[in-house]
Amino acid sequence: MGATGATGGALLRRLIELDIPCRAVSRTPAKLCAAIGVETPVEVVGADAADPRALRTAFDGSTQLFLAMANSPRQVALEINAIDAAVACGVRHVVKLSAPAAEPDSPVAVSRGHWRVEAHLAATGLVATLLRPYAFMQKLLLNAPAVAQGVLIGAMRDVPCNYIDVRDVADVAAETLLRPGLDGATYALTGPQAFSHPELARLLGELTGRPVRCIDLPPDDFHGHLVRTAHMPDWLASHVVEIQQLAVARPESPNDTVETILGRPARTLDAFVHEHLAMFAPVA
Ligand SMILES: NC(=O)c1ccc[n+]([C@@H]2O[C@H](COP(=O)([O-])OP(=O)(O)OC[C@H]3O[C@@H](n4cnc5c(N)ncnc54)[C@H](OP(=O)(O)O)[C@@H]3O)[C@@H](O)[C@H]2O)c1
Q1: Ligand 1 neighbourhood includes 85 CB (under 6 angstroms)
Q2: Which tens digit of pLDDT belongs to each residue from 52-90?
Q3: Of 12, 111, 226, 248, which has the fewest CB atoms closer than 10 Å, so is most exposed?
Q4: Cα of 1 to ligand 1 centre, how many Å?
Q5: Strands 161-164 and 194-195, bridge-based pairing
Q6: What sequence ranges are listed for the domain NmrA-like (predicted)?
């Protein structure tokens, strides 16, 4: 599930690379087919997670499920539908994309939702692997237009924040699906280095060759900026603010889980920015 998304898409590319037969589920299968081409071991199936019957058809005969779902007010219900369909279809193992601070009293609403899904999964008795990655480097691209104008806006003061490349999350997901002994555990996933916003602004300035000024707003002002200027829905703006306040309350530091599982270092933020340098450039 989530094969058209950031993490699921990267996982699908990894499974294709490894020539592993798999089934990719999307609400828009034609678009997914066009994206992956024809010469692959992937079977593309159309299903909406709001439709339990379609999910059961999609999962029929499967042994393992990778479950990634977009954040939305319906996320918990959709993921629970997918887990129930997995149970009905005799799936053995679920790898769920979760998030840090997935706890019943988490200060982050989305993480409380992840905890509810994790608890539902635990109650099924299926083998459950929980991936809890920190902030996706790929989401930094949402800041690219502002960075191109020379500013980085946030509400994180100068606390360190973990970033991870979704391709590393996907590579770890593939290992947990394919390598016996890695399943059934919970993994907090980070890149190799944590960055505060001022450090991130400095790195972006160095790599783009143009100064980037860090603007730190009070959380309510940042929320207003995200809704009015970035045109985010209220719930998503609240999520971004909550995630940043989580880092303030619980300063983050990197771990070596990605390297331990993959046998190679995690991708760096430096390399990620280099790869996407053109996107941080001002529009001519
Ligand atoms: N962003 C971060 O920094 C971060 C950090 C840690 C954890 N996370 C977690 O990562 C997850 C999101 O992962 P992502 O960014 O890789 O995903 P994404 O790019 O947002 O893609 C989400 C996927 O959800 C699928 N989807 C949405 N509604 C659906 C429905 N009704 N039925 C079936 N599929 C549906 C979409 O599939 P179709 O459109 O093809 O149907 C799409 O492939 C969230 O749970 C988030 O909490 C994010």
Answers
A1: no
A2: 999 999 999 999 999 999 999 999 999 999 999 999 999
A3: 248
A4: 9
A5: antiparallel
A6: 1-243
